[in-house]
Design goal:
The complex is a heterotrimer of chains A (about 180), B (about 250) and C (about 500).
Chain A: H1 3-6, H2 9-15, E1 19-24, H3 28-39, E2 43-46, E3 61-64, H4 71-75, E4 79-82, E5 86-88, E6 93-96, E7 113-120, E8 124-125, H5 128-134, E9 141-144, E10 149-153, E11 156-159, E12 166-173
Parallel strand pairs in A: 1-12, 2-3, 2-4, 4-7, 5-8, 7-12
Antiparallel strand pairs in A: 5-6, 6-9, 10-11
Chain B: E1 3-5, H1 9-14, H2 16-28, E2 33-34, H3 44-49, H4 52-66, E3 71-74, H5 77-96, H6 102-107, E4 114-116, H7 117-125, E5 137-140, H8 144-150, H9 155-161, E6 167-169, H10 184-187, H11 189-205, E7 210-213, H12 216-228, E8 234-237, H13 238-243
Parallel strand pairs in B: 1-2, 1-3, 3-4, 5-6, 5-7, 7-8
Helix pairs in contact in B: 5-8, 11-12
Chain C: H1 11-19, H2 22-44, H3 49-65, H4 67-80, E1 84-88, H5 91-105, E2 109-112, H6 116-120, H7 123-129, E3 133-136, H8 139-146, H9 163-177, H10 189-206, E4 209-212, E5 216-218, E6 223-228, H11 232-238, E7 242-248, E8 252-253, H12 259-270, E9 278-283, E10 293-299, H13 303-307, H14 323-327, H15 329-334, H16 345-355, H17 361-365, H18 375-379, H19 386-399, E11 401-405, E12 408-412, H20 419-432, H21 435-447, H22 461-464, H23 477-485
Classes of the chains: A alpha/beta (about 180), B alpha/beta (about 250), C alpha/beta (about 500).
């Protein structure tokens, strides 16, 4: 994608109150550790295939997502860290496809704090059609554009209902 | 070019001043306009109320009366839209009902030749300054069928802006329907009246003396609401403003 | 909650009450005007909006033309992916299927994602009759359910309530259904959303059965799509063990790529967002992720009948964005309840009389619940010419004629109550095809004009109750023309 098209991208993410951070491969572990600390998280859910190195700098208790863990157990975890399948610049969307570094759908839903890592530029496309092209419909997909929100009271948008009320997106440059 | 005035039944019966204004205006611009005496009604009220089959003879009559002219000018957005948008549809429906192409073929010639007045002035005559003089504050209400049906766009406003002495002020919520809607005004009179009252309040908020539109049906509803609400504003058809000159000013 | 609309008064009577309700008028005006400007901005951002709109229309038209084929394809792909497909011809069948499916799980409560199809069939009432409690989890649906109210908007069913009313409902009703409202709850939207989060959390976490609709179904892949904002959809779609989706047959699109159009037009048209916060797609079942059992109930309930009507079938293109409601001046003043259907506003006025037929008083009055201003058509992301269908249905009401009901061709008789109007229309047509008659009438009116009242008695009050009549001029235009330029006019 062209530079011009993606200059809008951090803004479209932020327009929907996602908190956007930028770093490179070396700074990633430190940034994640800092975010978890700032949030005051005592525990973090870890999808089975998450890059070990991403959590290398934090001492927060890691909780593995096990098949038998109940929604109630997940509700007791403070944060979740995942990768993503693709991100769409134009709409400020990240898409999860349940790959091992993203985990089952429930782990990014029940905890109130979601940190999502996007590899730039390889995981970024500019438009919805390009995003669809990259995705496999056979997998369960979750498209996320900002934290949960509602317009149900007087058609005015308020952030934060049932899904994670804080969404932090980390853009990791691969250059 | 043989130009016919299709005044519409409402204007002919209730608003002859608008007809006289159109004739005066077009004559001043060098357009020789005729009024075919056999004209009556385009059938819009019938069609829009659900009586399409009753509207068909009226459409055929319209075609008979106006078919020979090169251009048909009407000072009504909704009647203009009836001919341009809905006559072709009536033809299609007749065909779908297995009645052949006769109706479509009968109506086809008048469709592209029919122009709403402001459209005719800007697109055919090619003027926006028609040499008018009208020393009043005016706000313009774009009527729905002119705005969304015919796509008149900014033509009426361009014409008004060129009028000497006229101060044009923007109407808040201009694009919202005034609530007339033909038989809607009777069948849903409460909602219609509420829409009319809101339109009048918006118009009053501009401080203008005159609310101008290009359709007397809507103005009949808005004007009737104005007098009922004892508003000081007046409804005036755009033709009467454009016809007004320093020598012969409209009141 | 009253889920039935039978016996609703005709639109004009219901609307009269709404127009006189100051609070309702203010709530609706505030909400619709808020969203109107935002939608316009979100749409203006997209340079190829007109093309997207046209593409959406074409995809839907093509799909509807070959609906039988695509439905079979969908059934195959959903089944292949581990889902079970059920067919429901009408509301009763659909309710029966869903009730049985829930009973088979042994559960007595379900969590629901907001779904128009389940509202349409009155599923909650059917479940309640079978001893199953359905919890609505969308914030607005929750407000409606707690308030024992009816929905009045497609997207925001509680649009008729302002924040103060919502706070009062939460305070007084939440304890009946589960966790009570927090102490000292105020009317700030953020606090109200938080109260809903706390109230529903426990229900989500323990739910074993979820019920949803779907915004789209992809025939080629068997993929279901739910577009939402709050995360209640994700909760219902992923945490329960069993998921039952009730979806109208018109929600189908042929291919995965077709979604690219609607995922761009739907959010911008409905909530004025570039993209809604959450979109979930799933294909059958996935091992260890989400419900292990998935049932899809395909609902007809009048849709095939609607499809048989050449003009009216375009209503089936609807993607339920509600842009037409938000822009409609009639909806803004009459409110959603006046439409007597889960589908209010302009789209409801063309959908309900087709899905249910024009037999009842309310359904026969809906095609007239519009000034034909065309604002709905202008904003519709799939270009449904709502005014065209309204006029078409008016014709069905006053003239009767052929229609399809429950799969059979029937000839409808003209609706009652239009005899005087019909006679007047005929008389007017006769006069208008005889210019001499028109002229005689005009002259008579001009001659007697001094005796004309400014207000009218009887049915004329519908006009003069709120508007003065225009004065009749001294002479009609044609007399002036003949007097001054008589030699030029064509023959009568």
């Amino acid at each position: 994608m062209s530079r011009r098209r993606w200059s809008c991208w951090p803004r479209t993410l932020a327009d929907y109150r996602a908190i956007v951070h930028r770093t490179d491969g070396e700074g990633l572990a430190g940034l994640i550790a800092g975010l978890l600390e700032k949030r005051g998280s005592a525990s973090v859910l870890v999808p089975p295939g998450l890059d070990e190195g991403w959590l290398a700098a934090t001492g927060v208790t890691r909780v593995a997502d096990r098949a038998e863990s109940t929604p109630h157990e997940l509700d007791g975890v403070d944060s979740v860290v995942t990768a993503c399948a693709v991100s769409i610049a134009e709409t400020g969307t990240i898409v999860l496809d349940g790959s091992p570094d993203q985990g089952r759908r429930r782990i990014t839903l029940v905890p109130d704090h979601h940190i999502c890592v996007v590899r730039v530029p390889s995981q970024v496309v500019s438009s919805v059609p390009q995003g669809l092209e990259r995705l496999d419909p056979a997998r369960p997909l979750t498209w996320i554009s900002g934290p949960s929100a509602t317009s149900d009271i007087e058609l005015d948008r308020v952030e934060g209902v049932h899904g994670p009320r804080t969404l932090e997106v980390i853009l990791v440059s691969e250059d | 070019m043989r130009v016919a005035l299709f005044l519409t039944c409402v204007n002919d019966t209730l608003y002859p001043d608008t007809g006289r204004a159109v004739v005066k205006l077009l004559t001043r611009l060098g357009v020789d306009v005729d009024f075919p005496m056999a004209q009556t009604c385009c059938g819009q009220a019938h069609y829009n109320t659900g009586y399409r089959h009753e509207a068909e003879p009226l459409a055929r009559h319209f075609s008979d009366v106006f078919g020979e002219y090169d251009a048909i000018v009407t000072p009504s957005g909704s009647c203009g839209a009836m001919v341009r948008e809905l006559y072709p549809r009536m033809g299609e429906r007749a065909r779908a009902e297995g009645r052949g192409d006769t109706l479509a073929a009968t109506l086809a010639p008048v469709v592209p030749k029919t122009y709403e007045l402001t459209e005719f002035l800007v697109d055919v005559v090619g003027v926006t300054d028609v040499g008018a003089y009208y020393p009043h504050t005016v706000t313009y209400h774009p009527t729905c069928h002119g705005l969304r049906g015919l796509g008149l766009g900014d033509r009426p406003r361009r014409l008004l802006r060129a009028v000497k002495g006229l101060e044009l002020v923007e109407l808040p919520g201009a694009d919202e329907c005034c609530g007339f809607g033909g038989t809607f005004a009777l069948k849903n009179s409460d909602v219609s009246a509420a829409m009319g009252a809101d339109k009048v309040r918006n118009a009053e908020s501009t401080g203008a003396e005159v609310l101008c539109a290009a359709d007397n049906s809507c103005l009949m509803h808005i004007g009737g609401t104005m007098t009922r609400l004892r508003s000081g504003m007046r409804p005036v058809h755009i033709a009467e403003i454009l016809a007004s000159t320093e020598e012969e000013p409209a009141v | 909650m009253s889920g039935t609309y039978l016996g609703m008064p005709a639109f004009p009577e219901a609307a009269r009450e709404a127009v006189g309700n100051r609070i309702l008028r203010d709530n609706l005006r505030h909400a619709t005007h808020t969203i109107r400007a935002k939608r316009a901005k979100a749409v203006a951002e997209v340079s190829d909006w007109a093309e997207l709109r046209e593409a959406g229309k074409r995809i839907k038209d093509h799909t509807l033309r070959h609906l039988d084929r695509y439905l079979e394809r969908l059934e195959e792909s959903v089944t292949a992916a581990g889902g079970v497909v059920h067919w429901a011809a009408d509301a009763a069948e659909a309710n029966e299927i869903v009730t049985e499916l829930v009973k088979m799980t042994g559960e007595s409560e379900v969590v629901k994602v907001k779904s128009m199809a389940t509202q349409e069939i009155g599923l909650n009432e059917a479940l309640e009759a079978a001893g199953i409690r359905a919890y609505e989890t969308d914030l607005a649906e929750l407000i409606v359910q707690l308030g024992k109210d009816r929905p009045s908007h497609i997207l925001v069913p509680a649009i008729h309530r302002n924040r103060g009313e919502i706070r009062d409902i939460f305070r007084s009703e939440m304890s009946e259904w589960g966790r009570p409202a927090p102490e000292g709850l105020t009317d700030t939207p953020a606090e109200l959303a938080e109260a809903a989060r706390l109230h529903l959390r426990e229900k989500f976490l323990r739910a074993k059965v979820g019920i949803s609709g779907a915004n789209f179904m992809v025939a080629e892949t068997g993929t279901m799509v739910v577009v939402e904002s709050e995360g209640n959809g994700r909760m219902c779609l992923t945490l329960p063990e069993t998921l039952i989706s009730v979806v109208g047959i018109e929600k189908i699109v042929p291919t995965w790529r077709d979604l690219e159009v609607f995922l761009q037009t739907l959010p911008r048209s409905s909530t004025a967002e570039r993209m809604n916060p959450y979109t979930s797609t799933w294909t059958g079942t996935t091992d260890q992720d989400g419900p292990g059992t998935f049932h899809l109930v395909l609902l007809d309930n009048g849709r095939s009948d609607t499809l048989a009507d050449e003009v009216g079938r375009q209503a089936l293109r609807c993607i339920r964005c509600s842009a037409c409601l938000n822009v409609c001046p009639v909806y803004e003043r009459a409110g959603g309840h006046a439409y007597g259907s889960v589908y209010p506003g302009p789209i409801g006025a063309i959908l309900s009389p087709q899905l249910r037929g024009t037999g009842s008083e309310i359904d026969a009055s809906l095609p007239y619940a519009s000034s034909l201003c065309g604002a709905c058509y202008e904003v519709c992301p799939v270009a449904i010419d709502i005014p065209e269908v309204l006029v078409h249905l008016r014709e069905r009401v006053v003239e009767g004629g052929e229609a399809t009901r429950a799969g059979n061709k029937v000839v409808l008789r003209p609706a009652k109550g239009h005899a005087a109007e019909r006679a007047a229309m005929r008389a007017a047509r006769w006069a208008f095809t005889h210019p001499g008659v028109l002229r005689t009438g005009q002259r008579a009116a001009s001659r007697t004009r001094r005796f004309h009242p400014r207000t009218l008695p009887g049915p004329g009050r519908a006009w003069s109750g709120s508007r003065d009549l225009p004065p009749v001029p001294a002479e009609p235009f044609r007399d002036w023309w003949q007097r001054t330029r008589g030699q030029k006019g064509g023959a009568e």
